[in-house]
Amino acid sequence: MSLAIGQPAPDFTSKDQDGNPITLSEFRGKKVVLYFYPKDSTPGCTAQACNLRDNYKELTESGYIVLGISPDSEKRHQNFISKNELPFTLISDEDKSVHELYGTWQLKKFMGREYMGTVRTTFIIDEEGKISDIIEKVKTKDHTAQIL
């Protein structure tokens, strides 16, 4: 499934790092940065998370809620958050159901090997729950600038 700008963002309920259910539609009326990333504590994902952390005040002042999502467990998310002092919520999608909804679980190639994995993608969702932007070529060290 391929999502496009202007479409409603698929609603979902999944668990955050503390095991609390998070439902996307709860954030209606706010702008949401929903960013899909491959794995906690890897160099690119850490750079991306830290860039968002370092510019978090600017993002929240612009009215954004930041939600990161990966196939990692709640426990891994807790470790990643405390190690990097992340001020935003991370969603655990171990069964990849949310990845499937957003089309971010795809066949990838790395060093001649093919495997299924997360395609790093950020969806900007407006106050009405519609996709206002899709960032597919994510610059991990400069991601906030891409969002704003």
UniProtKB/TrEMBL annotation:
Belongs to the peroxiredoxin family. BCP/PrxQ subfamily. The keyword rRNA-binding does not apply. Thiol-specific peroxidase that catalyzes the reduction of hydrogen peroxide and organic hydroperoxides to water and alcohols, respectively. Plays a role in cell protection against oxidative stress by detoxifying peroxides and as sensor of hydrogen peroxide-mediated signaling events. It comes from Marinomonas ostreistagni. Pfam families: AhpC-TSA. Monomer. It comes from the Bacteria. GO terms for molecular function: peroxidase activity. This is thioredoxin-dependent peroxiredoxin. Its EC number is 1.11.1.24. It catalyses: a hydroperoxide + [thioredoxin]-dithiol = an alcohol + [thioredoxin]-disulfide + H2O. Gene3D superfamilies: Glutaredoxin. Residues 3-148 form the Thioredoxin domain. InterPro entries: AhpC/TSA, Peroxiredoxin_AhpC-typ, Peroxiredoxin_BCP/PrxQ, Thioredoxin-like_sf, Thioredoxin_domain.
